[in-house]
Amino acid sequence: MLNLNNKSNFFFDCLPSYDMGHLEVGNGHSIYFEQYGNPKGVPILFLHGGPGAGFSNSHKSFFDPNIFRVIFFDQRGSGKSIPYAEINYNNTQLLISDIENLRKSLKIDKWYLFGGSWGSTLALLYGIDYPSKCLGFILRGIFLGTKTEIDWFLYDIKKFFPEAYKKFISSVPEKCRNNILEWFHAQLHNRNRSKNLKAASIWAEYENSCSSLNYVSRPISGEQALAISKIETHYFMNNCFIEDNYIIKNLNKISKIKSFIVQGRHDVICPPLTALKLADCWDIAKIEIVDDAGHSGFETNISKKLINALEMLK
């Protein structure tokens, strides 16, 4: 376990990645990946949120570069993957296939999966399809890709962050406010670039502003927000391309694989009810509810718990 009185233990000093490139995965898509840390270390795959958010250098800070061989990649349409913000040939099943192709191309036998929010969804789905390739899971801010969770994001966060919600729907015509997702999807996929960017900025600011324990308005430019907003609305319109309650129904396939779940009690984007439901169905899973935290993996006590979980893998 970490000495939590020593701040240098909370986040590890970030080094340059030792390997990077693009992997062609078909239908015009190439996913960008990096390998970080110790090439002979414990292999662990980092799965970013969104869908569409991409990974950043700041995510390296969770991992001890002396111990872990960390694989980061930008999912289809995200970050440095090509083409940017593309939704054609972009669905959950293809992302799972991309993960497996990446594992094979890097000649990794088995690996741990580390993911938060949508990253937790993808980790669980990959595990269900490829349980023999999974050493274990470290998950945060559980999202199971259900319609109930999507509707919560669209309509019920207002109960906790009314200021953010008011800004979120301010551009939505009154007659469309019962169909917020459809309205944003139409704006984001309109041929008018200015409409795309405006809607992207509004969508991303809403999610970003509600991600921590304390409300802070976090504006984000349309260009920067385009991938997460276009891809999220595309996935949400299609119920994340999975059967409702699919993960819980198939949890038996990974029931014997060790897992650690970190969940903010005040996470309004992915409320703790879902994480507790998952843990109740997954006997081998350990869960920690962090009382003074929301959704973001970078909130102080969320970070501590995640790094503690990684320390135990050593």
Describe the model:
By secondary structure, the chain is of the alpha/beta class. The protein has helices at residues 92-105, 118-129, 147-156, 162-169, 180-188, 193-209, 222-237, 246-249, 272-281, 300-313, and strands at 19-26, 29-37, 42-47, 68-73, 111-116, 134-140, 259-264, 285-290. The protein has two domains: 7-146 and 243-313, 3-Layer(aba) Sandwich (Rossmann fold); 147-240, no CATH class. A hairpin with a 2-residue loop joins strand 1 and strand 2 (29-37).
Short account of what is shown:
The protein has 314 residues and is of the alpha/beta class. 36% of the residues lie in helices and 17% in strands. Helix 9 (272-281) links the parallel strand 7 and strand 8 (285-290).
Please supply descriptive tags for the structure shown above.
10 helices, Rossmann fold, 2 domains, about 325 residues, 8-stranded mixed β-sheet, alpha/beta
